[in-house]
Amino acid sequence: MRLPYVENPPPTANDDEAAILQRVTARRGARGLTPLDRTLLHSFPVADGWNSFLGAIRTRSSLPADTRELAICRIAAINEAWFEWMHHAPILEEAGFSPEAMELVKRGPENPPTDEELNALLTPAHVAVYKYTEAMTRTVKVSDEVFAELKKHFNDREVVEITATVGAYNCVSRFLVALNVGEMNQ
To answer: Which residues form a coiled coil (predicted)?
Structure first.
């Protein structure tokens, strides 16, 4: 970790900070504050915005877990955000991804999967999410072909939620890797 984690729980300087801390701990529940929270809480306003936005992505979107977690895990693999992978891969496995499919999602750019491999292990909707996530993460721009394939499987709300998930978790992975949160990116 490049910064020290704040105390668990961190001291608060005023009622606003106490309210923010309460919101963050309420979202985390019994699990308690994570190393990510204990890094974000160096800045209470940033932690509050992060908590609200990522809380909406994780718990208030209409996306099924397999769709959401496929995007998150692919981002973690591309960006080598292993702390993110460690927390989200079990959710994707629980959502029904086989060990072989998990290995495909985790593969790096030195050994990209072929279309045949993707189609053998993933549903057409999952392939569309995989390719959309790849495009958004690697080049930001999404080709008309990749977008059209995503639209075949998802309605407008779901496309917005997939896009927001990919954008949000690219932010998460970059934060985790840059600050080495969880000490997994030495």
So the answer is: none
Q: Within 13 A of 122's CA, how many CA atoms are on the CB side?
A: 26
Looking at the structure, do residues 53 and 139 belong to the same domain, yes or no? no
| CB neighbours of residue 165 within 10 Å | 25
Handedness of CA 175, 176, 181, 186 (dihedral sign): negative
Q: What is the pLDDT of residue 109?
A: 83
**How many residues are present in the chain?**
186
With tokens 């800045």, the residue in question is 43
- Neighbour-count burial for 57-78, b at 16+ CB within 10 Å, e otherwise: bbeebebeebbbbbbbbbbbbb
Boundaries of domain holding 55: 15-59
The mean per-residue pLDDT over the stretch 132-149 comes to: 97
Count of structural domains within the chain:
2
Please tell me whether residue 107 adopts helix, strand or coil conformation.
coil
Type of residue numbered 66: D
Whole-model pTM above 0.85? yes
Token pair recorded at residue 32: 């308690």
Phi, psi of 65 (to 5 degrees): -55, -40
The pairs formed by 97-100 with CB atoms below 8 angstroms and a separation of 24 or more are: 97/66, 97/70
